[in-house]
Design a protein that fits this description.
416 residues, two-stranded antiparallel ribbon, alpha+beta
């Protein structure tokens, strides 16, 4: 079933509202302006945000600066690509602002990747790799993002640029230096980048998180799910249909030593124990009475419903039994009847309706990408440097949250 964003209420802006948007943005900018080191940086940060919010296509620095009253191409290029301001400090403050506007005990963190097609080989992190934007192996930059969603709305909260392994070969040293990749940066998988963002958010402890959700690229990693569980986070993760689980916990043992050979030290499942089963095979074995229809969410054309089944299982971990989990099956209606499978470490007494709700909470990050790329110039940058890429994405994240704040205000009928 394709995730469809819930319909958002129209802005219904009056002329007075439009005139006051500049004041609204200046007020929003004041929430983090003190984190820039110099007054020139504060000035160009506000100008850059204004440019990202312009209703025009093509938001790389030069066309953006030329459209802005008081814009300056060279100064804005320097601000973005060379300015020594701290993204982490801005994103930490941003997380606090998101907590104020969207925070909820049942809020959901969503992990996902997105890609940026690029020509040439000089942009930081660019390589021939699978590109989701084009659906094939292509020249692109890849990144991992973190979004937050609650009953109020949704927005992005962090980002990490993925540097392929080839960027860490000795032959690529000059390219790394030219792009300004910080000395000591080491290769990180997308899974590691995702966990680093979540771990940092946990350390900041300012944004209430009820759940973490992700697609198969992350859900199929036992290590990633283990990190989440170890941090006390509930997850509901997409997994592949060939994932193996036990319906009951098998006995395990360390085999006794033999007269010859190395003494066994690794645990294994006792011979004769029940075998693990694929989750798609388990779904096929369930009686029709195990399936119930639930509404996943409100879609653009009305409620989206699907058939659900829930089974407590024992996860497989490297051929051994792992933690007790929920396996959640969701089958869409229609001829295809696509089966989606989720694993969750939520307690056994978790209400089924809550598992249903969270199963439909991956669309907000897709909506964030669509809004940020379509309206805020997320993919329009031409900066090639490490610093420039991160500065641009930070400001896009801040601009998106500004629009979310406006949407919330007008949704609630507030006027200042």
């Amino acid at each position: 079933m394709t995730a469809t964003a819930q319909p958002q209420p129209p802005f219904a802006l009056s002329k007075r509202d439009v005139v006051r948007l500049a004041d609204e943005l200046a007020h929003y900018h004041s929430e983090f302006a003190h984190l820039f080191f110099r007054k020139e940086q504060r000035h160009w940060a506000l100008k850059y945000l204004e440019g990202l919010l312009l209703p025009a296509a093509g938001k790389s620095v030069e066309p953006l600066a030329l459209r802005l009253k008081g814009g300056n191409v060279r100064n804005m290029q320097q601000f973005l690509g060379e300015g020594a301001w701290d993204d982490d400090a801005l994103l930490a403050r941003h997380a606090e602002l998101v907590a104020d506007s969207l925070g909820s005990p049942d809020g959901v963190l969503i992990v996902d990747g997105t890609d940026f097609p690029k020509k040439g080989k000089h942009s930081v992190g660019v390589a021939r790799q699978y590109c989701g934007a084009t659906g094939k192996i292509d020249n692109c930059q890849a990144a991992v993002f973190l979004a937050y969603a609650s009953g109020e709305d949704h927005t992005l909260v962090d980002r990490r640029l993925y540097l392929p392994e080839g960027w860490f070969e000795s032959a690529a040293r000059e390219r790394r230096e030219r792009c300004g990749v910080p000395e000591g940066t080491s290769f990180r998988t997308k899974l590691q980048l995702a966990w680093e963002m979540i771990e940092q958010l946990c350390v900041r402890d300012c944004l209430p998180v009820g759940w973490v959700t992700c697609d198969e690229a992350f859900g199929d990693s036992h290590e990633f799910l283990g990190h989440l569980a170890g941090a006390g986070l509930r997850y509901l993760a997409d997994v592949a249909v060939d994932t193996l689980v036990w319906l009951e916990r098998p006995d395990t043992e360390v085999p006794p030593a033999k007269a010859t050979g190395r003494t066994p030290s690794r645990e294994r499942v006792v011979a004769g124990s029940a075998k693990p089963v694929r989750v798609d095979a388990l779904a096929a074995q369930l009686p029709s009475s195990a399936w119930r229809t639930h509404m996943v969410k409100e879609g653009a054309k009305g409620p989206i419903r699907a058939r659900f089944a829930f089974v407590r299982v024992v996860a497989g971990r490297g051929g051994l039994p792992g933690p007790d989990l929920w396996v959640v099956f969701r089958r869409s209606f229609g001829e295809a009847g696509q089966l989606k499978v989720f694993l969750s470490n939520a307690p056994a007494d978790t209400p089924r309706r809550e598992l249903v709700r969270v199963s439909g909470m991956r669309w907000p990050i897709e909506s964030c990408f669509e809004e940020a790329k379509g309206s805020l110039g997320m993919a329009d940058y031409q900066t090639r440097s490490w610093r420039g890429w991160h500065h641009h994405m930070t400001l896009v994240i801040l601009a998106h949250h500004f629009l979310v704040g406006l949407r919330l205000k007008h949704k609630k009928g507030l006027r200042r």
